[in-house]
Structures are given as structure tokens and as C-alpha cells.
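Students often ask why inverse folding is considered easier than folding. One informal answer: many sequences map to the same fold, so there is more than one right answer. In these notes we will look at a single instance of the problem. The structure comes first.
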């Protein structure tokens, strides 16, 4: 009915009496933080708020610890529903909600599927509009919470003739308190990349006869995510990076093998020859030093000349 509401969020249904694993950090699904999302992961994020680069299945997606597929609400197609979000730290910005008919608790949604079913607001035009005092223009799908930390309730209309045996309802909270560059080239708070929070809930949407479409979700060719500006994130080049890293590792391994081979040849094959050369060099050096330090022998006596006798001497003039 039009009075249906959803307060279960972040796949933490255990807080509302469901038999699911308790998640005590369900308020920390912010894509890993601003730096991790925008610098390391190029704006990408898991559909339910897990960091993009965490191992799959991510904790809050199908197959993960908290992605149990527990259905928490049943809705009638085309009706307006009330969704309540509790903010414990207000970062300005806005909320958006999306649906993806996975129709299988083992199959999680993709952002491409969710982006095809953005819920439209059913609030009064003067509620949840942009601006500190709500002076902005109403937006068809965005709800701008006012100041303060409290529970914000917003109304959204389910698509007409849209049913699903198992739908993933995604909440996206795009914060607006970071300074960045605006589209017109000026800088302002709320422009450029912002911190983002996400959450998921599993619901059923039926027609007036209580029937729901159970067509399985078609496999997506690429598991991509869509940043807040609506432009699909670039495809990951992990394969190219992996080949580059592998090449570097092989080069390092080859260099190490060369060094160890030379050391082996030196110590085990050329060792005797080198040791003999060093021993001969030491002997030659020792002999040269010994020759230099031997004390000199006694001086040679001067030549002795016999003194001539005066007898029989011949005088030559």
C-alpha cells in the first residue's frame, strides 16, 4: 500500500529482528573512504558500499557474509513507499534509490542494472530540495536532507508494471561537504568528487494478483560501476598491469640467477686456480720483503799494493 515503509538498510536486518549475521559496522559502508574510492579505485565502489578492490564476493553482496538475500519487505507495484534514513553525521548532499530485479538470492545486482531503475520522488515539491534552507528547485530523483542528525523520511514511487520475485534496493548518499571544481570552472563546496555512502535491502514487488516476475538477471559482460557524475568508470587495466608486474618479476629472477651462477663458478670451479694465484703472489711478496731486509755483509777490504824496494830500482827521468 501507499503507507508501506522501509527502515531496514545496509543489509543489517538483524537490528530489526531478522535472523541474519549482525553487522556492527553497518554505518561504515562508504566505499573505503574518499581517497580509496577516488584515488585508488577511480570513483568505483561496490554496489552495497564495500570498497571496490576488496575480494569478491564482497561482504555485503550476494554470497558475502551479510549478503544473505533475506527479503525484508513486500511492495505493490506502482505505489509510493516511505524510506527512512538515519543520519548520525550529516554530510549535506543528497539521497538516491535504485532497483535491480536479480530474482535470485545468489545473484547480486550490478550498477548498470540499478541505473536502469532509478526511483522517482513522490514527496511534496517543497520537501527535500537542494540548498541549506531548501530554497533550490525540486529534483525528480534526489532527496536533499536538511541540517541535523536525525531520521529523514522520503517518499518514492515504485515503477508501474514493475514486479520482481527478488529485487535489490540500493541507497546512495552522495555527500556535499567537500570543496571541488564545478562544471562552470569555479570552485565551491559540493562540487567535484564527494564522499559516498551506499546500502542495500532485499525486497519483493508484486502486482495486484500477488504475482511477481522471476526472470533471472542477464549476466553482464563487464562488472563496472558508475561514479556520481553518471559517466561509466573506465575499464580496469588490471590484466595489463599484471603482465607488466610479471615481466618485472621475471627480469629480477633472471638477474638473481645470473649473480648466483657467477658466485657458484667463482667459489667451486675457479676457486683452486684463483687460490693458487693468490698463494704464489703471497710467496713472491714475502720473498721480496725478505731480500730487502737482510743485513749487509762486511765491506770488502781495499786492494793491497806491495811497496817497491829501493834496491835494484830503476829511475826513469
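Output (designed amino acids):
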Amino acid at each position: 500500500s501507499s503507507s508501506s515503509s522501509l527502515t531496514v538498510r545496509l543489509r543489517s536486518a538483524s537490528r530489526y529482528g531478522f535472523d541474519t549475521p549482525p553487522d556492527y559496522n553497518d554505518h561504515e559502508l562508504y566505499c573505503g573512504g574518499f581517497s580509496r574510492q577516488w584515488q585508488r579505485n577511480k570513483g568505483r565502489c561496490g554496489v552495497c558500499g564495500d570498497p571496490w578492490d576488496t575480494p569478491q564476493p564482497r561482504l555485503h553482496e550476494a554470497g558475502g557474509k551479510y549478503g544473505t538475500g533475506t527479503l525484508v519487505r513486500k511492495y505493490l507495484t506502482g505505489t509510493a513507499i516511505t524510506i527512512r534514513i538515519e543520519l548520525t553525521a550529516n554530510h549535506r548532499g543528497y539521497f538516491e534509490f535504485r532497483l535491480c530485479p536479480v530474482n535470485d538470492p545468489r545473484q547480486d545486482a550490478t550498477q548498470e542494472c540499478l541505473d536502469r531503475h532509478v526511483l522517482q520522488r513522490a514527496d511534496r515539491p517543497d520537501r527535500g530540495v537542494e540548498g541549506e534552507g531548501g530554497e533550490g528547485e525540486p529534483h525528480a530523483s534526489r532527496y536533499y536532507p536538511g541540517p541535523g542528525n536525525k531520521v529523514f523520511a522520503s517518499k518514492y514511487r515504485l515503477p508501474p508494471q514493475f514486479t520482481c520475485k527478488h529485487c535489490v534496493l540500493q541507497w546512495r548518499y552522495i555527500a556535499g561537504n567537500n570543496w571541488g571544481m564545478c562544471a562552470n570552472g569555479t570552485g565551491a563546496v559540493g562540487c567535484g568528487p564527494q564522499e559516498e555512502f551506499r546500502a542495500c535491502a532485499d525486497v519483493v514487488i508484486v502486482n495486484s494478483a500477488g504475482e511477481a516476475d522471476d526472470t533471472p538477471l542477464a549476466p553482464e559482460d563487464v562488472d563496472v560501476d558508475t561514479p556520481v557524475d553518471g559517466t561509466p568508470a573506465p575499464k580496469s587495466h588490471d590484466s595489463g598491469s599484471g603482465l607488466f608486474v610479471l615481466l618485472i618479476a621475471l627480469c629480477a629472477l633472471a638477474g638473481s640467477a645470473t649473480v648466483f651462477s657467477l658466485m657458484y663458478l667463482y667459489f667451486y670451479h675457479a676457486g683452486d686456480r684463483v687460490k693458487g694465484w693468490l698463494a704464489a703472489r703471497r710467496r713472491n711478496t714475502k720473498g721480496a720483503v725478505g731480500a730487502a731486509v737482510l743485513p749487509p755483509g762486511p765491506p770488502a777490504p781495499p786492494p793491497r799494493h806491495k811497496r817497491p824496494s829501493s834496491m835494484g830500482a830503476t829511475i826513469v827521468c
